[in-house]
Amino acid sequence: MLEGIRIIEVEALGPAPFAAMMLADLGAEVICIHRKGGAGTPGMPDRSLLDRGKKSIALDLKTPEDQRTARALIASADGLIEGFRPGVMERLTLGPEDMCALNPGLVYGRMTGWGQKSPLAQVAGHDLNYISLSGALWS
User: Which of 25, 69, 89, 91 lies deepest, with the highest CB count within 10 Å?
Assistant: First the structure.
């Protein structure tokens, strides 16, 4: 269904890797940029189950050489998915303004718990937070 579509996922937690896995399941080529030298969690598999169907590359996005590699990948992509807190990708010079200038056809997907500019934007957001704040956690 999505053959010929290339997605770059910048490794994160939560919904971003799940969404990228679903796109891979539908036939997109998904390349996940993992953190170079990231230590695994003891007792856990070396590779996340959410990496199913994806290609992987390990980069340190704070180094100029790996930045160039990431930019080259993004320049060749149809979409980018990231799930960092607001401002992280901009500090890495990989934010939507820079990347869409590099690749005008790029669809830039951001997944955050509280959006980019809300009062809680810098706070991690998880299901339990949303359920409790909505009042649905009350029993």
Answer: 89
